[in-house]
Amino acid sequence: MGRVKSLLLLLVITALALFFVLPLLWFVFAPFNERASLGVTLPNPPSLANFQEVLSSELAMRGLLQNSPIIGVGTMLATTITAALAAYGLSRSTIPGRQVLTYVLILFSSVVTGTASMVPIFRLVFDLGLINTHLGVILTMTGGLLPSAIFIMQDFVEGVPRSYEEAAMVAGASPLQIFRDVTFPTMRPGLMVVGIWVLVNAWGTFLTPFILIRDPNLLPAAVTFYRFFDEEGLPQITLVAAYAILYTLPVLLLYLLINWRYGFRFFGGIKQ
Amino acid sequence: MASIRLNNISKNFGTVKAVSNVSLDMPDGEFVALLGPSGCGKTTTLRMISGLEMPDTGRIFIGDRDVTTLPPRDRDIAMVFQDYALYPHMSIHDNIGYPLKVRGIDGGEVTQRVSEVAHSLQIGQLLKRRPGQLSGGQQQRTALARAVVHRAQVYLFDEPLSNLDAKLRLEARAFLKHLQREVGVTGVYVTHDQSEAMALADRIVIMQSGEIMQAGTPLEIYRKPANTFVASFIGSPPMNLLPCAIDYGARMITVADRFHLSGDTFRLPANNARAVTFGIRPEYLHIETQPVPNSIQSTFYVLQTLGSEALVIVRVGEHLVTVRMFGDEIPDLPRDLWLVPEPERVYFYGEDGNLLP
User: Greatest CA separation found in chain A?
Assistant: First the structure.
């Protein structure tokens, strides 16, 4: 009886695993297959022809190698630095209701970059003269990601005992030395987590740059995917597959690098 | 080295009075313990000396300098924190050397001084490790090393031993005392552990509700508690306190409404002052198994054997009274016992709780 049960369980798990693994297999195989379709087939023979064609598309490559990095890194720096300062200030102050403040901000943030607010955001960015600029996209996305970033960051900062800074004050350090030697290093795990999280979000955002940028030369990779759709709006699967793997690779590698180097945690405090 | 002078300092947090009108003179080279239950204002007082808190009113002097408004780094102090506050991302060497580094002392000299201090504290072999790889006792020594590596005018200790287990705490206590005798530092030591304060300090300041209850040498405080708070706080077990009344005309003391002690045997308070509390330490009560004059009748309640001594707890009316008996041979005690206080060890406290002269 127990054996039958565990066998059944094994079958269910295998089916579930296959269900989730298939798209990943497609994702890995299709780019190397000249005749890729929506089915998962082993490339036979494997070829790099898809990549050759993708690499020859100037707009797509500019999106991937220039515009996406500018927007991604820009948003990451703006959000992480602002969130770190805000979280530090919030967690080290005794403003009544500061917890409520962060929750309210988070609630609103889903509105800021949401579809519903795209018209006012467009108007705002237009009035600021930032339409068709990377800066406009960076600022809009920073606004949207900041509350959650502050929320995550706050947890990290609160995990750092105040006595670290106090010990440095008593030891004779100046405020700048305290920040450089104690505060910044102890906040580093939080900066890492928030930084990567923001980068992944910014890298993958489609709607904001799609609406705010007109010039095809400035579009990030998330939007230049459209290069590989034909006039009827149908995807050229071979090219989309090849571009998709190129598009994913930088973020994936970065994640692995950080994870290997520092380890990821979504809670505060310092691993001693 | 320098003296510390607190001149009428007060500090409120919102509506809570943390410290009110505390004045204290600590001469150069004195090691003072601030002792009291949690929330008594001892840590706030220490933090005001360190500059981590600013007093609302009053002045603080270190030596001749008025440091009231100076930030911690301009006060020339060193401090050991309760949680040690060792920087987790720095090696033990860098942790200990940090006060030297921020003062711009060059690397070679830092290394030399760090290793000197570390060796004297027996953590010389740990300098390359991180704080997380050290035991509690080693972390405590590292925190101590960081405080003494730089010659400060004043050393501050915020319950530095409270995170250690009992055995390590005794070791660390002996070690601290030795260090303090050797270096002869001016130190302020905050603790809620009276035996720690008694063992380490030249002078103990007992605080309660933000005010100083009594300041004196450990023996003074033990022998002459200035008020019922100190009497019931110091000593383990603390002093027995019983309600009393004195009839000065008849020279008669009535304890716990019932028992009469002669005013000829016991020294009565001066000026016929009204006494309401009768105090006697457990070791100055003697047990008789037969009725004797000038004794307090009681019934046996419980016996606690502690090895070198035993605590006999008896009932006097509705009050519990502790008697300390030394030696490991405790006789079988009958139900009815008569307690005889040593006359010169009896204290009377007035209605305000203060000791009557």
Answer: 71
Tokens of A114: 């949401």
Q: CB of A265 within 8 A of CB of A196?
A: no
Q: Residue B256 and residue B243: Cα distance in Å, rounded?
A: 5
Tens of pLDDT, residues A104-146: 877 777 666 677 788 888 999 999 999 999 999 999 999 889 8
Interface residue ranges in chain B relative to chain A, Cβ cutoff 8 Å: 50-52, 71-73, 77-79, 81-83, 85, 87-89, 98-99, 102-103, 130-132, 146, 150, 156
CA distance A266 to chain B (A): 19
As to burial, measured by CB atoms within 10 angstroms (0-12 exposed, 13-18 middle, 19+ buried), residue A248 is middle
- The model carries a pTM of 0.78
Q: How many Å lie between the alpha carbon of B78 and the closest alpha carbon of chain A?
A: 6
- Residue B58 φ/ψ region, left for φ over 0, alpha for ψ in the -120 to 50 degree band, beta for the rest: left
Cβ of A172 within 8 Å of Cβ of B131? The answer is no
- Between strands B309-316 and B203-208, the pairing is unpaired
Q: How far apart are CA A255 and CA B233, in angstroms?
A: 58
CB contact under 8 A, B81 and A163: yes
C-alpha dihedral (B48, B53, B57, B63), degrees to nearest 10: 40
C-alpha pair distances (Å), A162 with each of A168, B52, B151: 10, 11, 24
Do A170 and B102 lie within an 8 Å CB cutoff? no
Can you list the pairs that B131-136 forms with residues at least 24 positions away whose Cβ atoms lie under 8 Å?
B131/A272, B131/B84, B131/B86, B131/B87, B131/B88, B131/B90, B131/B92, B131/B95, B132/A271, B132/A272, B132/B88, B134/B92, B136/B163, B136/B164, B136/B165, B136/B168
Count CA within 13 A, CB hemisphere, residue A270: 23
User: Which residues from B are below 8 Å from A176, CB to CB?
Assistant: none
Q: Mutation test of the interface with chain B: which of A95, A156, A170, A191, choosing the one with the most B Cβ atoms within 10 A?
A: A170
**∠ CA(A151), CA(A152), CA(A153), 5° rounding?**
90
Instruction: Report the distance separating Cα A36 and Cα A44, nearest Å.
Output: 10
Residue of B nearest to A188 (CA): B89
Which class would CATH give B234-350? Answer: mainly beta
Place of tokens 């509105």: A111
CATH 3.40.50.150 for domain B4-232, yes or no, is no
Residue A34 DSSP SS3: coil
Domain ranges within chain B, ordered by starting residue = 4-232, 234-350
* Beta-carbon contacts below 8 Å between A and B: 71
- Rounded to whole angstroms, how far apart are CA atoms A222 and B28? 71
Mean pLDDT of chain B: 89
CB atoms closer than 10 angstroms to residue A180: 12
Q: Quote the CA–CA distance of B357 and A196 in Å, as a whole number.
A: 72
Q: How confident is the model at residue B261 (pLDDT cuts 50, 70, 90)?
A: confident
- ∠ CA A176-A179-A183 to the nearest 5 degrees? 165
Cβ(B92)–Cβ(B128) below 8 Å: yes
pLDDT at A270 (0 to 100): 41
- Tell me if B89 and A270 make a contact (CB, 8 A cut-off): yes
pLDDT tens-digit profile of A139-171?
999 988 988 898 888 888 888 888 999 999 999
